[in-house]
Amino acid sequence: MTEFVPLAVDGVFEVRPTRHGDDRGFFSEVYARDEYADAGITCTFVQDNHSLSTSRGVLRGLHFQKPPFAQDKLVRVTCGKVFDVAVDIRHGSPTFGKWVGMELSAENWKQLFVPAGFAHGFLALTDRVEFLYKVSAPYSPEHDRSIRYDDPQIGIDWPLGNTPPILSNKDQEAPLLTEIATGFTFGEF
Predict the structure, then answer these.
(1) Among candidate residues 113, 118, 136, the one with its CA nearest the CA of residue 4
(2) How many domains does the chain have?
């Protein structure tokens, strides 16, 4: 049975699917709609995505889509290890601008549920990270937005050490949270 652990920002869950293994390998049910509904997560996923980060230090995010293409995400790692982050971007929320982060890896088998109204990002902690995620709305370039990974008001403690992250052009040019209209209001999402 999957365990759902609420995190410090309301709506975000650490998800711990059960993994059954023996000397042949393992089996794990990584998503079951009824179990999620019992935990209060009732979104309908419409698309699965798979990304590869080839090098330690690749940082993707902070990304989100504005309504009406806002996305709930269920994220997991099948190869390697990441530091995964969700940031509350719902104006009027008591936790607006606050973040939660956790390590996801092929070894620990944890997942993170990130509801609509949150920006999401991750940092590859190993070479060759395969990252899979379900989303509740299709990709819409017109609604796709980014926030700076190092926004000082958010203050994410990325485990980078002294090494600068490897960023896409889009993420290098991302605005601060105060410079962007997110489209989310607390209570509506």
Answers:
(1) 113
(2) 1
State the catalytic residues.
63, 133
Nearest-Å Rg of the Cα atoms of the chain is 16
Nearest-angstrom CA–CA distance, 181 and 166 = 26
Q: How far apart, in whole angstroms, are the C-alpha atoms of residue 91 and residue 187?
A: 9
Place of tokens 């999401």: 120
Query: Which residue, chain included where needed, has tokens 């958010």?
Result: 154
CATH code at position 74? 2.60.120.10
Instruction: Report phi then psi at 179, rounded to 5.
Output: -100, 5
What pLDDT digit, counting tens, does each position of 82-114 carry? 999 999 999 999 999 999 999 999 999 999 999
Do 113 and 167 meet the contact criterion of CB atoms below 8 Å apart?
Answer: no
**Residue recorded with tokens 């940031």:** 87
What is the domain extent for residue 100?
Answer: 3-179
Query: To the nearest whole percent, how much of the chain has pLDDT over 70?
Result: 100
Residue entry with tokens 């079951």: 32
